[in-house]
Amino acid sequence: MKHKGAVMEYSMERMNDLMRAYDEYISSCDYIRMPEVYKVIVNMPSRRFWVSDIRAALVVSAMMRGENDLSGMWPLKKEMYEEIHTRVVALKSEYPELTISELCAKVIAQPAPKFYLTPGSAKMMICKAKKRWMQEKLRRLRLS
Q1: pLDDT tens for residues 8-19?
Q2: Beta-carbon contacts of residue 60 (< 8 Å; ≥ 6 apart)
Q3: Looking at residue 109, what DSSP letter applies?
Q4: How far apart are CA 115 and CA 18, in angstroms?
Q5: What pTM was computed for the model?
C-alpha cells in the first residue's frame, strides 16, 4: 500500500497532460461552465497511465496471484488497476517471456482511456497549476 504523503514521480508530466486536455476542451467551447469542464477533461484520453511501473507491477502481480483485495481502493484507482491488469494479461499471451514488471512498464506507457481523477481533484490540480504559472510570470516580470 502506498503511504500517506507519497509524491508521485510523474506529477509534472501528469499536470502538463491534464493542462493539455483542459486547454483543448476550453478552446472547443462556445460557452464555458467550469464544473462541466472538469467532468469532461477527467474522462478525456490521457497520454499514459499515471502510476509508476513499480507500483503497477506490485498491484497487478498481487491481483494475478489473487492476493490483492481492491475493495479498499478508491473506485477510480480500482478501475485503473483493473484496466492495467486486463492489458497485462492480454500482453502476456503475446509476450510470454516478459516479466510482470516489464509488461506493466509497457502497459502504463500506452495511452490511457481517461485520467482516473475525480472532477474535484482535477479542479484542485488545475487551480494550483494556474497559481504556480501566475507566480512564475510575476517573478519573471520582477526580474526584467
Answers
A1: 677 889 999 999
A2: 81, 84, 85, 88, 100, 104
A3: T
A4: 8
A5: 0.84
